[in-house]
Amino acid sequence: MLRRLRLKFICINMLIVLAVLLVMFGLVYQITQQDLEAESVRMMRAVAAEPLRLGRPGEQPEEVRLPYFVLRLGENGEIAPTGGFYDLSDDAFLQELLDAARGTGEDVGVLREYGFRFCFGSGPWGDNIVFADMSSEQSTLNSLVRTCGIIGGVSLLAFLFISIFLARWAVRPVERAWDQQRQFVADASHELKTPLTVILTNAELLQAPGYDGAARARSSENILAMAQQMRGLVESLLELARVDSGSVKTAMAHVDVSRLVSDAVLSFEPLFFEKDLPLDCQVESGIIVKGSESHLRQVVEILLDNALKYADAPGRVTVRLERRGRRCLLSVADPGEAIGQEDLRNIFKRFYRADRARRMDHSYGLGLSIAERIVQEHRGRIWAESREGVNTFWVELPTTEQSKR
Q: Which of 40, 231, 286, 387 maximizes the CB count within 10 A of its CB?
């Protein structure tokens, strides 16, 4: 699919370039042809008016001097050559040219079969007809066509290489998204496969004859636990899909982040107390951001839940919110096993878990991905650091002018 997409991109680019070049070269050819014709006709009219006028040394002619000859038309239809650049001894040929010019019924025209342009005019000694050779004009146009062809060919070749490069560059985000989607589907299928297998196995055991009551109760509990785990995973997937669809932007308002963080910490304090983890909260008041209150609360809860799962007791979990110029900085730090550099680079990827052993703790590797998408929708950034046995997650968001100092 991606190969066809790149090929389609290249073909469309080349067709656009070809159309532009054809239009440009067509206009150049048309304008040049009209200019040459206008210069030729202007010269012929001047010659028809003064067929015997000669130029002076050093005088620049006002019009282009093409090879021409003039025929003076007598009152009785006879013709008399009066000057030009040709041998005018063949009266029959001259009469043939005159008859052909008169047959067109035009004062100015072209005899393509003879390669001449003609122009009827009046001079001091009567009516004249001027014939100008078109070979040099046609040679100029032919040379222009060859030049345009060479330029066009080189341009198309250059644009082909540029289009190939641009196609790879333009399709790269699509390719990355496609790979992420395939990985996402594979990971989601893998996450759903385990609880489904447990549910099916326990359901088959429930139907087995001679299965005692205690065993049936355990199977029912296993089915319920796996069903709840699947529901949590599906809800996380749906939430991630909603965030990806841009639902965050539809609920933008001015949010008091200071109050929001304090409320979230207050609701988590009993849970940290049960794990013997003191919770230290240092929140600067009056910080306002423009965003979705429910989604920002979700980010704080994800970071607190992450600290609750992976913090090691005894230790102290610290939550800080402070103003940094026109932005605010939220940090959640917890003591625990150090996060490696590779894990720090991948920890916000979907279904990624630094500790693969913790697969059955209702952690699906989606929370931090959801938090990252929400923060990005709020024009902020999120990252993680691990130093001296303390893992810290940072969130930076732009504040509004309503923030109180």
A: 40
Cα torsion 320, 324, 329, 332: sign: negative
Residue 47: is its pLDDT beyond 70?
yes
Cβ contact 374:298 at 8 Å = yes
pLDDT confidence band for 279 (50 / 70 / 90): confident
Looking at 19-150, which runs of residues are DSSP E strands? 68-73, 79-84, 108-111, 116-123, 126-133
Of the pLDDT bands very low, low, confident and very high (cuts 50, 70, 90), residue 333 is: very high
Task: State how far the Cα of 81 lies from the Cα of 103, in Å rounded to an integer.
Answer: 20
For residue 363, the model assigns a pLDDT of: 57
Q: What is the pTM of this model?
A: 0.54
Amino acid symbol at 256: D
Q: 359: pLDDT confidence band, cut at 50, 70 and 90?
A: very low
The DSSP secondary-structure symbol of 217 reads H
The strand pairing partners of 389, in sequence order, are none
Predicted confidence at residue 59, as pLDDT, reads: 47
CB-based contact 267:399 (threshold 8 Å): no
Residues 143 and 140: their CA atoms lie apart, in Å, by 5
Residue 360 has pLDDT above 50, yes or no: no
Locate all alpha helices (DSSP H) within 70-134, ordered by sequence: 91-104
How confident is the model at residue 207, as a pLDDT? 80
* Distance linking the first and last C-alpha atoms of the chain: 54
CA separation, residue 174 to residues 2, 169, 177, 180, 182 (Å): 8, 10, 5, 10, 12
Helices (H), 50-134: 91-104
Please name which of 84, 96, 89, 93 lies closest in space to residue 131, comparing C-alpha atoms: 84
Domains assigned to the chain: 2-49+65-139 (no CATH), 250-398 (3.30.565.10)
Give the burial class of 169: count Cβ atoms within 10 A of its Cβ; 0-12 exposed, 13-18 middle, 19 or more buried. exposed
Tell me the sheet residues that pair with 35.
none
